[in-house]
Amino acid sequence: MDLPEIKELATMRPKESLEVLLSRMSELRSNGAGLLDCVVYVRTNQGCGLAEATHIVINSSAWLDRKDDFLQQQSEAFEEFLETNRDRIAAIHETYTPDGTETVLHLLPNNQKKLWQLKKLRKKILLLKKQKKLPWPKKLPKKQDRVE
Fold first, then answer.
1. Are residues 61 and 88 in the same domain?
2. What is the pLDDT of residues 51-90, one digit of tens each?
3. Domain interval for residue 99
4. How many domains does the chain have?
């Protein structure tokens, strides 16, 4: 089954009970559907968000054998994302609940990235100036004395 067929199947059927949904995932997997295909099926059929659909799928008996690998890959991908976008992250808020940890990232818009970098650089320069650790003279030479 390909993705359009899975979406169509999920749309054609009424919202399924959890019991039926869990057996449907076993059926989909035996027909060659992958874990992410099942997430798409659950999300489409249940009308829920990505996180909830993923939670249902990875905790189902059909995919329990792949749960640890999936969570490890998801964690590595998130760490890679953080590393790649470090200079675009304005804030990170983590909320700990009995159901797990929710992490919310606030990213700077692309046009504010440079402004943020300039502000960061300005703070660093002011700090160095205050500590008198600037590598250049306090006063620039007069224009006629400058070497260009």
1. no
2. 899 999 999 999 999 999 998 998 899 889 888 888 778 8
3. 84-133
4. 2
